Amino acid sequence: MSIIEVHNVRKTFESIVALDKMNVSVEKGEIFGFIGPDGAGKSTLFRILATLMVPDEGKATMMDYDTVKDYREIRQHIGYMPGRFSLYTDLSVEENLRFFAHIYGTNIEEHYDWIKDIYDQIAPFKKRRAGDLSGGMKQKLALSCALIHKPDVLLLDEPTTGVDAVSRREFWQVLQRLKNEGLTIVVSTPYMDEASQCDRVALIQDGHLMAVDTPLSITRKFEKPLYAVAGTPRYFTLQQVRSWGETVRAYPFGERLHLVTDEPADTEELIRRLEMVGITDVVMDSASPTIEDAFIALMEHHHG
Amino acid sequence: MDDKVIIVDDLLRTFGSFTAVDHITFDVKKGEIFGFLGANGAGKTTTMKMLTGLLSLSGGKATVAGFDVQHNPEKVKKRIGYMSQKFALYDDLSVWENIRFYGGVYGLQNSEIKERGEAMLEKLNFGDVRDQMIGSLPLGWKQKLAFSVALLHQPGIVFLDEPTGGVDPVTRRQFWEMIYEVAETGTTVFVTTHYMDEAEYCDRIGIMVAGKLPALDTPAKLKQQFDADSVDGVFVQLARGKQKE
């Protein structure tokens, strides 16, 4: 059963098309991720869903309520955490939480068990002003404030941007627990590796959805042969690989380079080719595509 | 010995009773791509501010481009380039105005600004946007331009603070190729990132944890040392061991 429906939503800012006829739906109880870089349109979509912005064309519904006409109902049922920290920096941790509880017509105690896991970690600092918290603690407070009225849908706009790799992992563990409690979570991120944490993802670029599916299905659709290549020196290896006729594209990928070809390649022959030009420590193996490989392929496809 | 362009010896910085940078020692060689990693609040930015002459030291010594950062911060600043994710160029100046502005700040002659600026625009293929406001350009373009502008005065060392945050995967890689290219010509690149795959692209990395530097080596050797199959694995082990808010 879908809990969010987006139909032909278009939004422009002067000459910039932020969202171009977007269609997508989110199922109840899933973690749905919008994966894409800055400027792809993620925040615009989140603002429309959060009833803070009106689309130029098309319509969006949340729990069957229209985001334009029924914004009051929707706001009672969603929690929204914008990308930029937007709590009151000169109120204390506890005051912020009480404020948000109050405007949603509840109090901290009513749904405390719902946020306990997260809030307990910042409770020792509850008298501290929110502006004086570390990044990780601010994030936990913002999440507590977005959850205090026990919403049905949680909208998280880039909650992990600029957050270090370990804190990001912990944040995702929290989201998995909330999902198990039945919450529907819509999250955006520029980190491609976070796609695997989502039940379904939409790959978004320049206001378009390039793909919507489970992470596994998206990578399965990547059909071309993919190889992980290493060689010293690294940059020279990349330049060499790129110069080959059989190379569709080649790019750095972690400690290796990823090479995409049209046809399965004779790796022994390719290894010899690299060694002939003086490259050492050559390694070449078949590799499984990741979401990031799929994203790169789709980007090139969309740009022609 | 002269090929060390950054020498950090027992560097210390305290804020009141808090020790942000706790006696760290390392050096960076000419032409090296040095990745500087760490959790939020581990002390990366504080270290970077000291190395770029923006913050005084509480103890220890650091030499950058041949000058002591404590005693000659202005000389250091002239010899380094700097760009960050948060602030790089002026949104309400055009591409060309930004180039002129930074060229002026770095003390270039007008003729040098014109010559190097034109060459830069051509190389980036940015000729068509020279009179556009920076604010109207996609993030990835801005960051590529900001990197080039940070190199306009041909510094020996460039400091990049999370240069690719939020940039799409294709542009992010194009950015790294620009890094490779300048490193090959002998420019030293000191870079911070939260993308663990980018850490793998570095010649050597240092990982800060709670003000200290418990890991400092090539990505391959660190993976061996920590018995991890990626830098991400090394990072998680280190950061988990010492976690506190």
Give an overview of the whole structure.
The complex is a heterodimer of chains A (304) and B (245). Chain A is of the alpha/beta class and 304 residues long. Chain A folds into 2 domains: 2-219, Rossmann fold (3-Layer(aba) Sandwich), CATH 3.40.50.300; 223-288, 2-Layer Sandwich (Alpha-Beta Plaits). Chain A is 35% helix and 30% strand. Chain A has 10 helices and 14 strands. In chain A, the strands form 3 sheets. A 6-stranded mixed β-sheet of chain A has the order 6-7-8-3-9-10, with helices on both faces. In chain A, strands 2-1-4-5 form a 4-stranded antiparallel β-sheet, with helices on one face. A 4-stranded antiparallel β-sheet of chain A has the order 12-13-11-14, covered by helices on one side. In chain A, helix 3 packs parallel to helix 5 and helix 4 (112-122) runs antiparallel to helix 5 (135-147). Chain A is elongated and about 70 Å long. By secondary structure, chain B is an alpha/beta fold. Chain B has a single domain (4-89, 156-241), classed as Rossmann fold, CATH 3.40.50.300. Chain B contains 9 helices and 10 strands. Chain B has helices at 44-51, 73-79, 95-105, 110-124, 139-150, 169-184, 196-200, 219-225, 231-241; strands spanning 4-15, 18-29, 33-38, 59-64, 67-68, 80-84, 157-161, 188-192, 204-209, 212-217. In chain B, the strands form 2 sheets. Chain B has a 6-stranded mixed β-sheet with strand order 6-7-8-3-9-10, sandwiched between helices. A 4-stranded antiparallel β-sheet of chain B has the order 2-1-4-5, covered by helices on one side. The longest helix of chain B has 16 residues, at 169-184. Chain B starts with a strand and ends with a helix. The mean pLDDT of chain B is 92. Classes of the chains: A alpha/beta (304), B alpha/beta (245). At the A-B interface, helix 5, helix 6, helix 8, strand 12 and helix 10 of A face helix 6, helix 7 and helix 9 of B.
